[in-house]
């Protein structure tokens, strides 16, 4: 799939790190380091602008290494970039640790997965088909 991209950062374009990777790392595009204190959130620019084809979205997800080692995650995970959005791709990071975290220019702060999606047309009805599960949810199957 070809996707048009404008790179206003001085970093390389996102790329797949292995031949079976689903996501590409997004890098911070900063003029100076940003300190993210415990329980603080911030919007991290990437300098990237994309033009996705109709029927696709880009999902911004946490990087597992940052999450497990540093307690840094994407707050609205996954963040969605719609096909008609033309603004800068940014990442909402939050520090869930008890230590400050410094975000440096060029640091890989999240990953982006491009995925196809469907458009739903609702069909209003008076009832839904019964299933064995029914309305059970939120832990209804036990531990």
Short description:
This protein is mainly β and 143 residues long.
Notes on the structure:
- The protein has 143 residues and is mainly β.
- The chain has a domain at 4-8 and 23-116: Distorted Sandwich (Deoxyuridine 5'-Triphosphate Nucleotidohydrolase, Chain A).
- It contains one helix and eleven strands.
- The strands form four sheets. It has a four-stranded antiparallel beta sheet, with no helix packed on it. Strands 4-9-7 form a three-stranded antiparallel beta sheet. Strands 1-5 form a two-stranded antiparallel sheet.
- The longest helix has 7 residues, at 64-70.
Q: Which helices and strands appear, and what pairs or packs with what?
A:
Layout (H helix, E strand, L loop, with lengths): L3 E4 L16 E4 L6 E3 L4 E5 L2 E4 L4 E6 L2 H7 L1 E3 L4 E4 L7 E6 L5 E3 L4 E9 L27
User: Helical element count?
Assistant: 1
CATH architecture of the domain at 4-8 and 23-116: Distorted Sandwich
Largest sheet: 4 strands, antiparallel
Q: Estimate percent helicity.
A: under 10%
What structural category characterises the helix and strand content? mainly beta
Note the gap between the termini: 42 Å
Please give a handful of descriptors for the protein shown.
single chain; 143 residues; mainly beta; Deoxyuridine 5'-Triphosphate Nucleotidohydrolase, Chain A; four-stranded antiparallel sheet; three-stranded antiparallel sheet; 1 helix; 11 strands; 36% strand; globular
